[in-house]
Amino acid sequence: MQYRRLGRSGLQLSALSLGSWVTFKNQLDTRAASDLMKQAFDAGVNFFDNAEQYAGGESERIMGEALRALGLRRDSFTVSSKVFWGGVLPTQRGLSRKHIRDAADAALARLQVDYLDLFFCHRPDLDTPIEETVRAMGDLVRQGKVLYWGTSEWEADQIAEAAGIARALGIDPPTMEQPQYNLFVRHKVEREFVRLYDALGLGTTIWSPLASGILSGKYANGVPSGSRMTLPEYAWLRERLESPSGRAQVGQAGALARIAAELGATPSQLAIAWCLRNPRVSTVILGASSSAQLAENLAALAVLPRLCSEILERIEGIVGNAPTSAERF
Ligand code: NDP
User: Fold this and answer.
1) Which of 98, 151, 96 is nearest to 128 (CA)?
2) CA 206, 210, 212 angle in degrees (round to 5)?
3) In the annotation, is 54 catalytic?
């Protein structure tokens, strides 16, 4: 395993980590989830990602039971939660001081830990002043309930505003952002956040490295039974897959698979290694519904040295979506 600092912080996360969205509860029961976490931990993974929203809190409950059953030392792993979608009541959602406090306490109880290593604002809340959110996160840090706080899918301006407020108030600024990043979605990580990396020391914990599985090549000949796109709760993902842009992505995944084969890698390994090649990525959060998938994906680190400039250029030729850099006058 390789370890990377979370932005400018001193925390070293495994370059590959494990998330539980969709899989825990929907596809994996407590036993299977626990086995997957053990497999990841034994391979050097030290970060497990979660959120209050995943399976309505059940994903955190399962992860908490797994952590307890595995008996992992608290100083040997990091775990996250995210606040925003905690329920249907107005007090159970968003980034108000009240919901942030309630969500943190509920996540601690479900995960059976005394503190969250990482705590994310899962989306920006346009109805709550950013200062209220920053102060609430600062309180959790002071109380020792959270070590590092950050954002997910915020805009660069919102992150910069939060950091400015935090600095003025003597509160820890956001340490990390959790954006989607993969061969199809690049703008935030490669363009929008560029000015934040050095200015704020921002780290990134990136999600959906396989674009929900499309980059594994598994959808080349239809939708395999048991795959994510067959789950009724995620019909919106399947609609996206079957849209013209989704079909184009499946075609591109096929072309990328041919490059992967030349490198002696699987398409998933190529796609994950491509995320890892970006030094601004602190950790790639893997999703896996089976032990075989996890083993395959963890081996992506070995593919990283094979991504020479010629291969990267050929990949660009297939996806054709590199963001332009800022204009210099
Ligand atoms: P991916 O894009 O990597 O998709 C993972 C899924 O792809 C697996 O569950 C599996 O689905 C399929 N898959 C994985 N490996 C293989 C393989 N080798 N061969 C074939 N199929 C494979 O990641 P996720 O979308 O799961 O995101 C990862 C994590 O990121 C989440 O668990 C969560 O922690 C975080 N996240 C954060 C978000 C945010 O808003 N902050 C949003 C989304 C995710 P299947 O077998 O069912 O087809």
Assistant:
1) 96
2) 100
3) yes
Q: Is the CB of 283 under 6 A from ligand 1?
A: no
d(CA 215, CA 302): 18
CA of 54 to the centre of ligand 1 (A): 13
What is the distance between the alpha carbons of residues 58 and 110, in angstroms, rounded to a whole number?
A: 8
Q: What are the φ and ψ backbone dihedral angles of 207, each rounded to 5 degrees?
A: -115, 160
Closest CA to 300 of 5, 76, 20, 43: 43
- What's the CA gap between 150 and 169, in Å, rounded? 17
Six-digit token pair at 190?
């490669």
Single-letter amino acid code for the residue at 198: D
Spell out the residues 6+ positions from residue 164 whose beta carbon is closer than 8 angstroms to its own: none
State in Å: Cα 115 to ligand 1 middle. Answer: 26
What domains can be seen in the chain, in order of their start residue? 3-212+271-288 (3.20.20.100)
pLDDT, averaged across the chain: 97
Ligand 1 pocket, residue 207 CB under 6 Å: yes
User: For residue 298, what pLDDT is reported?
Assistant: 98
- Burial status of residue 254 (CB atoms within 10 A of its CB: 0-12, 13-18, 19 or more): middle
Contact 66, 77 (CB under 8 A): no
Q: Is the pLDDT of residue 327 over 90?
A: no
DSSP-assigned beta bridge partners for residue 81: 119
Q: Kindly state the average pLDDT of the residues 293-320.
A: 98
Q: Which two tokens stand for residue 235?
A: 């019909």
Q: What are the backbone angles phi and psi of residue 85, rounded to the nearest 5°?
A: -110, 85
Is the model's pTM score more than 0.85?
Answer: yes
Element (H, E) at 27: none
